[in-house]
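Weekly structure sync - notes
Attendees: PM, LS, DV (DV joined late)
Agenda: review two folding runs queued last week.

Item 1: First target. Sequence and structure tokens pasted below for the record.
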Amino acid sequence: MTERPPVILFVPGIRAKPPPEQQQEQLRRCLEAALLRQGIARANDLASQLHVVGWSYAFYGAHDSIAPDMPAIEQLVSGAGDPAGDREEAEGIGSRLVAVMYAIGDRFPVLSSLFATRRMEARMQEINRYFRNRDDHRTTICELLKQSLREAWADEREIILIGHSFGSVIAYDTLWELTHEEPEGSAQKVDLFISMGSPLTMNYVRRRLHGAARRGHERYPCNIRHWLNLAAIGEVTALDRRMAQCFGEMLSLGVVESIRDNLGVLARYRNEEGLNVHKCYGYMASDTVAEVIASAAARFSPEA
């Protein structure tokens, strides 16, 4: 086992993102700040292992600006604000009502048009473009992650793979392809897969995953050692469902050693529009993520 810290591969969600190096820098800052609050001595060294797998430009043909996120990121890094107030807001009736609408739309797709906003409709069009592999986008995106995984395996690194939002779907699909379509990929493992604010619990998504029409071992990726699902308080994308239930057959088949859920992450990203518990920067700056990363690194490398 290597004494180096694990490599942390981060797969962003849907929508155009800033250039990968810019998003990577800010995610590292958020993680380092959270690690320092936990008293981790080598916080900078550990945070510097985070690498963004930038796929959005291949999908959208454009980058977004990181400038609008910077005030909120600076607040996260400084630790400013009112955690108790943020928790109360995240637990409020507004978040619960939105979550109910998402759940109804997922359970009864015919009703989803009654609740859908223009933004939601745009996201669904993008998701469907991915699942239909239009212009080979699904194939191209998964290949980008495969390249990063292959490099880490060739370097004999332990891997923490983080998929935020729809990035968790991309990560899952990629791992399935490596298991069932590439012989060398089935022999390698991701040590810890972390899904954050993941739509993998949605029926609509699960029916369209690679392997969804198959049975037994062929239905699932078989190269995950441990799977941890994180959802923020007030998170609506995850539908308040547990991955251990939705993918429990993976445990009974023995293709994964553990699947755990933590649906109580306090994610505190706040901009001029208010609290947004789904943003990746809020997750990365949370105490929960810092504790998980530090604990995993300590298992992989006693000096981390």
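Item 2: Second target, run right after the first with the same settings.
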Amino acid sequence: MATPEHLVKFDERHETSQTYTVPPPWKGPEHCHVEFCIFSNPESGEGMSLVTTSRSAFAVAIAETPLSTGLEAGSFYEAEIPGKGSGLIANRTIRKGEIIMERPPALLIQAEPHVDLEPEVRDEVYQAAVDRLPEPARARFLRQVGSTIYDKVERNSFRIFVDGDRKHSAHLGVFPEVSKFNHDCRPNVHYRLNGLKHTTIAVRDIPAGDELTISYIYGRASHATRQSQLREWGFTCTCPQCTLNATETGASDNRLRQIEALETEIERIMGARGAAGLRPEMGGKLVELYRAERLDAYLAPAYTRAALIYAMFAEAERAREFAAEAVGALERETGPWAKDVQSIEMVG
């Protein structure tokens, strides 16, 4: 089920249309197989190609394409990282909450042809779609990790839902500049998707010389689970969190279990009439565990729970403290449109 921030919504004013024709400067349909065709626009962002249905292409074409924005030039640079290949390095201190980059996709592929087309046909369609990108965008796409275009899509794409949850809504979006971020299980950068816009934002202060990283997986998993999941990406993770000694790894896994147990207990109590058994320190303990685990990209739920719990016990100062932290974390993790921001601001 799509989350709202991943949706490119169809304009219902066009709902009665029987056919969907993309407006200029969009081109297509071209190179069609069954109902999936190539649509392209060299002027959309820095160039965009689609492999999708005419309806989904129309939804994308009439949506507002986000501009490529972010930090000023020179704030970070690309460099070779030992054991990783290329990566991004901070060239100055990047402060928590600064947006690193905002980008539209260069290639957007409907999920069904990616999975169902015969490999020979699929590869031909993908090559034609990439060929329709302007040369700079095409070069950035081809520099990504992966031996073939299919492999590059597999290893570098993010799921985007076009036109709500209708048939054929699931798409894979490839953002070549975002693919330069390497993985860390405790990343200093968080990413979010809103429509066609991919945003990366610092979740803690990043000193000059540090690598900028995102997480390819959900970071609250145990050490063994993370290692197993990341092997499916084709590498063994050697980030600082994954190379702790056995004692430290055990302590980390134990904190993660405590987080899960405490959140379950809080939800159970708050869902029951009267909230019997709830204690104000439960909110503070939850935040303490998140901070100890350096889960900086996932703090919004912990801060929100803590603010609400302290407010229930009329501990106004602590409630305001965690409400302010919750608002900042919600805006970093979800965006300024986060639905809980206004209600949490009222707590503060």
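Discussion on item 2: The two ends are 32 Å apart (CA to CA).
Action: LS to circulate a short write-up before next sync.
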